[in-house]
Amino acid sequence: MNEFEFIRRLRAQVESQGPSAQVVRGIGDDAAVIKPGDGRELVVTADLLIEDIDFRRATITPELLGHKALAVSLSDVAAMGSEPRWAMLSIGIPSDAWSVDFIDQLYEGAFKLANRYRIRLVGGDTSRAPDKIVLDSIVLGDCAAGRAVLRSGAKPGDFLYVTGELGGAAAGLRLLKRGAKLGAKRGNQSEAQAMEKVLQRQLSPEPRVGWGLVIGQEQLASAMIDISDGLSSDLLHLCEESHVGALIDAAKIPIDESVVALVGRRALDPLQLALHGGEDFELLFTVAPTKVSKLPKRVDGVPVTRIGTIEPAAKGIRVAEGSLIWELEAGGFQHFGGKNG
Amino acid sequence: MNEFEFIRRLRAQVESQGPSAQVVRGIGDDAAVIKPGDGRELVVTADLLIEDIDFRRATITPELLGHKALAVSLSDVAAMGSEPRWAMLSIGIPSDAWSVDFIDQLYEGAFKLANRYRIRLVGGDTSRAPDKIVLDSIVLGDCAAGRAVLRSGAKPGDFLYVTGELGGAAAGLRLLKRGAKLGAKRGNQSEAQAMEKVLQRQLSPEPRVGWGLVIGQEQLASAMIDISDGLSSDLLHLCEESHVGALIDAAKIPIDESVVALVGRRALDPLQLALHGGEDFELLFTVAPTKVSKLPKRVDGVPVTRIGTIEPAAKGIRVAEGSLIWELEAGGFQHFGGKNG
Predict the structure, then answer these.
(1) Sheet holding B23-25, edge to edge
(2) A225 in reach of chain B (CB within 8 A)
(3) Which of B138, B113, B106, B102 is nearest to B123 (CA)?
(4) CA B48, CA B45: separation in Å to the nearest integer?
């Protein structure tokens, strides 16, 4: 398969999604042309995934890789309270991975997720790479003007909420590093289920698109961020941008039950993983007391939990654990670089 | 420098560009928020540059690399007849290149070019990379609705034009492969100038932003593409999308004078380089006979040359060289993957 065949295949696949009034021109020109509605603001994010830094070829399938690349960016758009609408995927592929099967499966993973949210793939770039697979996922979303939910609007007195459960993705990463594989046969059924669940959380994260939309459309949150680096790091980011402090209640943190189920036999500390483990891609947001009653209990089956309160900046960022109160330090996923947009 | 220091530095640099009414939120949130004007269409492109595929660390400076990454995407937006307005840069950097100097210089190159066209850097992603530098440059532009110039509008009878001169970037690449360096001392002054010029064309390409704007605003072209893969390949793309053929006059092709000046001593065939050499980042476009008189002679000092005519598809894509007429085959830069948007 050469570059032209590849682009032709990809274009046919995109066109099979049917026409879209807002895509004036998709794949096949120098750039894509899209038409946001009048009065809309545009939300744009890019996320780089590099082999042996962000994933290993031995532990993720091409399909899950395509899914994960897109999921990470969808999570960012959800964290802005916006609707993801268009995506581009830039991929660099080394010779030993360049095959019709590999590329088809990678795009299949991305398309499956994109179709679920009616997101159109409008472009990207494909390049040979010397040895490591590289993906840059770019997602564009939109929202009514002035409605994007930033990190910077939290006020003392607001309540702090998080969607879903925490710690699973980090537990999955630890198990992968110890040789666990998705879909492997295991003796004990409840243990097998728990392992499978945390491996899925790591390899096939579910962006909280539905929650992001509800929060944005109803303007329920004063500030929001997605938990990609870990609750501690991302709470710190939110508090920094909002110039506030926070007090969270350790007992309220929704620790992933599968992580708890795996404790004992393995060196996994559920609270540590929930506090500092990255890549859960849940949404962390703050809600003014007057709006708390409007918050739905679940969106797309995903619950939400109140885990603390926003305080003045001078109080710092603290955790109450029973009668103890201690200062929370960022201990999440600290890679070399970092997200800057 | 860790990720937070890095993002803080970058943000300060962006904020020193002054406020922008259309950037609601730049670097420092989950995603950027921008506000295109009502009735505008958005043009988006992404270009991946990977070390040892698209450039070599030994022959390009970090500043030129930052410039080139952005320039390649600006050229795509120009080729849509649109105004580039916002940019994101995703960079993966291996440990041995991770230094304040390297990153500052890389961004300096990108910022210098961005500032020239008042483009705002609104985000991106930064990641560690195992061994090779990776850059994905994302540029967003806009134009009045329905005004984007596609590859698909050329009609038989239209004239074919190209901006600037061709062949320089490919000659520069050949010289780099033979050990030439930018700024090296050379004996013969005219030869030194010619070498410097073609090396610059390869390492520091100038996107034809001004031409793209004029063509888009005045709706002068029926179809347009930028010459990234080479005149032959890109003419083929334009003709395929427009379902037309073309006849070009070899004698009219504006061959880079510096390439001609270097002929004789080196194995460089100027016409071959001009026809098939990639990365000149000039614009190739078609103009209906009724609009030819409106075409400016120069934009930003860059001339334009009529090199042929669009014909019915059945006639194929041909070159007239004196009394000979031969079929043009795509022979441009054929890397492994390819641009798909």
Answers:
(1) A120-129, A83-94, A134-144, A40-50, B32-34, B23-25
(2) yes
(3) B138
(4) 10
| Pairwise CA distance, residues B31 & A309, whole Å | 25
Residue B289 one-letter amino acid: P
Q: Number of A:B CB contacts under 8 A? A: 306
H-helix segments, chain A? 3-15, 62-78, 100-116, 168-177, 189-203, 209-217, 231-242, 257-262, 270-276
CA angle (A19 as vertex; A13, A22 as ends), nearest 5: 115
Closest alpha carbon within chain A to B225: A30
Closest CB to B88 among A44, A129, A151: A44
β-strands A244-249, A317-321 pairing: parallel
Measured between beta carbons, the chain B residues lying within 8 angstroms of A49 are 127
For residue range A19-76, what is the model confidence (pLDDT) as tens digits?
A: 787 888 888 899 999 998 888 999 999 999 999 999 999 999 999 999 999 999 999 9
Strands (E), B37-133: 40-50, 83-94, 120-129
Q: Is B18 at the interface with chain A, CB within 8 A?
A: no
A290's tokens:
């007057």
Q: Which of A11, A29, A75 sits opposite B151 (nearest CB)?
A: A29
Q: Note whether B136 contacts A: Cβ–Cβ < 8 A.
A: yes
Residue B14 DSSP code: H
The Cα A2–Cα A14 span in angstroms is: 18
Residue of A nearest to B223 (CA): A29
Site of tokens 């995934």 = A49
Which residues are paired to B339 by β-bridges? A125
Buried b / exposed e along A257-277 (16+ C-beta atoms within 10 A): ebbbbbeeeeebebbebbbbb
CA B196 to chain centroid, in Å, comes to 19
A41 vs B53: CB contact, 8 Å cut-off?
no
Q: How far is the CA of B28 from the CAs of A15, A176, B25, B251, in angstroms?
A: 35, 31, 8, 53
pTM of the predicted model, to two decimals?
A: 0.94
How large is the average pLDDT for residues B314-341?
Answer: 76
Cβ atoms of B183 and B202 within 8 Å: the answer is no
Q: Do A79 and B30 touch (CB under 8 A)?
A: yes
